[in-house]
Design a protein that fits this description.
Radius of gyration: 22 Å
Low-confidence stretches: 161-176
Strand content: under 5%
Largest sheet: 2 strands, antiparallel
Shape: globular
Number of helices: 20
Order of helices and strands: HHHHHHHHHHHHHHHHEEHHHH
Distance between the termini: 4 Å
Number of strands: 2
Oligomer: single chain
Helix content: 55-70%
Strand order of the largest sheet: 1-2
Structural class: mainly alpha
């Protein structure tokens, strides 16, 4: 790999570091508004990060970067590493007195929109820190959608390109309107955030809570300003509002843009949308009925909590309205398996994602058909689109690697001294970017504050692996990648 690629990747990462340094002034102003002295932390962090980023950008300044696959893989990994390290600086310098492992974990959890936290006592945490967590969520969500729409399809490791699903006139020249499409995406992202904020405020949240929870909802991140999360507000209308916005933001943003900007109803025919909504409704109703029969709560309340819980897990948001692990073993088992599933491609959600399950199911069905009719021609389809062998290989490779990483990570967590349930659920919630796990320690009523530093480093790596679609990270660890 030539030096030009290194310089270009570092230059772009340094410029992004400057943007994050500027973003630190937002929580600084929040602290000033609420009279908290931690505003100095964010100003100092902005100066430090901005200075280092400016020097790095100036030292590596060159012509337009030679974008190719190697450049793409290197840049994606370097950007998310820089985001994670820069995001950790205010946590380390804040009055929360966090060591590097905890600060890095909180930053990675925020920027990957996972939502796992090591901070106990959120109700009394500095307002600037709460805003910084939510802001990292929100900015991470923008990066995640951009990654899924533009970068992953190009690198052939994940994502279903908007340009292949929109219409035939864009298939021949997919990047002809990328600038206008990007503007439309940012506009839709901001409008959904504003709509969510206003809805939460009207339904009883304070303006500060509404804005923070809206940014976490739209990014499907799950950071709250209260230890009890949505349970703090004790409001069924808020649960239904959260369910709606989490579900919407689990859908492909490319589809939302085509629908909202152009008014095209046919955009909603994407097969993964129907599959995702079908199992969300099925799981929610099943858990509501079980919760009603098992606990005796009113059915309307059981239904609200059930839909909220299922949507927060499938969307990989990670909010909590109640400790659903107390609802019974059936709910615990379903929550554990839903943690693997995730939302749709091109959304802010994590997990394996619905489109991969559709392709895997059709590959199995086609394989069975070929056993019966070995000479027949049976194409693997995704809706009306034929899935080419390269995409089939990518899906199988991702799925296999995902499960292998989960198994290896679970064994490593067990070696650190944690029980099987905590180990397996901690790793899968990190890989799927869900947030809370299962069990007394890291469940919806707990947090990761008591997890040891080595385990936090492991889970931070797992969160990055899951967010970058696993293969994007693993490919840069191969010796072949670094050969010229």
């Amino acid at each position: 790999m030539n030096a030009t690629i290194y310089r270009s990747a570092i230059n772009i990462s340094a410029i992004c570091g400057l943007y994050l340094a500027a973003a630190m002034l937002v929580p600084a102003m929040v602290d000033i508004y609420y009279g908290h002295r931690d505003w100095q932390v964010f100003v100092l962090s902005a100066v430090l990060v901005g200075g280092v980023s400016l020097l790095a950008a100036a030292a590596t300044r060159s012509g337009p970067p030679p974008f190719n696959k190697k450049m793409g893989f290197l840049l994606v990994n370097l950007l998310w590493l820089v985001f994670s390290l820069v995001g950790a600086v205010p946590f380390m310098l804040s009055s929360l007195d966090m060591d590097f492992a905890k600060a890095l974990f909180e930053s990675v959890s925020a920027i990957t929109t996972t939502g796992s936290t090591v901070i106990a006592g959120l109700d009394h945490a500095p307002p600037g820190i709460l805003m910084w967590r939510s802001l990292l969520h929100w900015l991470g969500g923008i990066g995640i959608v951009a990654l899924g729409l533009f970068v992953m399809p190009y690198l052939r490791v994940g994502g279903i390109s908007f340009f292949k699903m929109e219409s035939s006139d864009t298939n021949d020249k997919p990047f002809a309107r990328i600038a206008s499409f990007t503007r439309a995406f940012v506009l839709v992202y901001v409008l959904i955030t504003l709509a969510c904020t206003l809805t939460y405020a009207v339904l009883g949240m304070s303006r500060f809570d509404a804005l923070n929870h809206a940014m976490a909802t739209v990014a499907t991140g799950g950071f709250s300003t209260h230890d009890a999360s949505f349970g703090y507000f004790n409001s069924l209308p808020l649960l239904w509002a959260g369910t709606f916005f989490m579900t919407v933001c689990s859908l492909p943003f490319s589809i939302l843009i085509v629908f909202m900007v152009r008014g095209r109803l046919d955009a909603l025919r994407d097969p993964q949308i129907g599959v995702f909504l079908a199992y969300l409704v099925a799981f929610s109703v099943a858990i509501a009925v079980y919760h009603r029969l098992n606990s005796g709560v009113p059915f309307h309340a059981a239904l609200a909590h059930s839909f909220f819980t299922v949507s927060t897990i499938l969307s990989t948001t990670g909010f909590a309205s109640e400790d659903y692990t107390l609802w019974g073993p059936f709910v615990v088992a379903m929550a554990f398996f839903m943690t693997f599933m995730g939302g749709c491609s091109g959304s802010t959600a994590g997990g394996i994602k619905a489109y991969r399950f559709i392709i895997l199911f059709n590959m199995i069905r086609t394989g069975l058909y070929k056993l019966i009719y070995p000479n027949g021609i049976h194409a693997v389809r995704y809706g009306r689109m034929t899935v080419d062998p390269e995409l089939q290989r990518a899906v199988v490779l991702f799925f296999t690697t995902y499960l292998m990483l989960w198994a290896a990570g679970s064994l490593a967590m067990s070696a650190f001294g944690y029980d099987v349930l905590t180990s397996t659920s901690a790793v899968i919630t990190a890989l799927s970017n869900v947030g809370p796990g299962i069990g007394a320690i890291i469940g919806p009523a707990g947090n990761f504050s008591t997890i040891s530093d080595p385990a936090l480093y492991l889970l931070s790596v797992m969160m990055l692996l899951g967010r970058l679609e696993v293969l994007t990270v693993l490919v840069v660890l191969t010796p072949l990648f670094w050969k010229s």
